[in-house]
Every structure is written in C-alpha cells, then in structure tokens.
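re: ur question from yesterday

yeah so i grabbed the chain u mentioned. its 225 aa long if i counted rite. heres the sequnce exactly as i have it in my notes:
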Amino acid sequence: MRMRMPLSVLTAAGLSLTALGLGTAPASAAPAPSDAGTIAAYNGSSEEAAANRAFFEAVLRSAAEKRAAAPDSTAAVTVVYNASRAPSFATQIARSTQIWNSSVSNVRLQAGTSGADFSYYEGNDPRGSYASTDGHGRGYIFLDYRQNQTYNSTRVTAHETGHVLGLPDHYSGPCSELMSGGGPGPSCTNAYPNAAERSRVNQLWANGFAAALDKAEKALRKSGR
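ran it thru and got these structure tokens back, copy pasting raw so excuse formatting
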C-alpha cells in the first residue's frame, strides 16, 4: 500500500505521479534495502496487491513452521519482527505493535532479533513507504523519511503492519479505515483498524494459520523430524 501524497507535495518533492504514497514492490523485489542498492520499481495496483498477499503468506508460513517445530499452548499466534534497522521509528513501531495487539486476539506481534518473521527498515525512497517480500520467504516493511514527515507516522506504520497481518489497501475508504492509507489526506491521523479490519485479521489468523500449520506439520512428518 502507498500513502498517497497530494499533487502539490509530490511536485515540491520532485516525485512522479507513479510514486503516490505507501505501497509495495512486486513479490519478486530485491532483498531488503540494507542488502541492495535499489528496490524493484512499483509497477501498478495488481502487482501491489500480489505483493501484499505474498508478504502475508510468507509471514503466515514462517510463523506456522516455527509453531510446528516447537508447539506450545499459546492460543494466539506469535509473529516476531526485527526493528533494529529502523531506529528512527522505534516509537512508532512500538505504538503500532501496541495498537494491533490490543485490537486483535488471534495473532500477537513481538519484537525480537532472532528468528524474526519480518523486519522494518528506514531510508529514502521516491515511492514512499511500502511492504514487500524478498523473494526468499521473508518480508520487510520500508519506512520512508519524507513521507513520514507528511503523514501521521504512527498511521503509516500501523497501516503497513496491516499488510503483514493480511489486509489489502482500500484507498477510497474513510479516515476511520486504517487501510485507506493516504486516501483521506495528510490530515487523517487515525492509526487504529476499524471493526471490519479487526474481524478480518482475526479470521485470517484463525482459519489461514490452521491451514498453514497443517501443511507445516505434514512437511515435518515427511522429513522425519
């Protein structure tokens, strides 16, 4: 998802219209920014939607594989993130985590540097902030400096984290809808998912995770572990 900037802001920043706000690179994007000089260009809404879906499925699969290898009695699924490469956004990431953990019950976000299911990065990118996969079963969220100065930074971070949890963009939605992103404009500061978004995440991490866990357990049995 891309946080869409007003045309005046884009012009002042020297950005093209294709760089409208927060979004994802295609699922075949290059490794995370710290490992590569460039990231594959944003190629349109269909690629964006596919990348969001691939990101969610990668995180879902990663969490399921860890649960299958070391089952526990925790009802909620734990998704571990590494925020060490986005130190400027430590406060916003922590707040986004708090928001999501208080909003849904079937999945819980937890900070950690070992065995993370996805990571946060920071820097400058003309496309703004986005979520993507690295093509190797892992995902990352990139937080753009300029965009986070224009839009409410906690909303940007919480929105991108929504992709990790399976939610697609819906730019035409109202400010009360977190996944409307930058559609309502920079004046929108709401960083909370609405009832429908909360319900959808809980549904995905109940039914979707159960299917992913079943697949992971079968793979473990087949490998003799």
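noticed a couple things. The first strand starts at residue 77 and ends at 85. also DSSP finds six helices and five strands in the chain.
anyway ttyl
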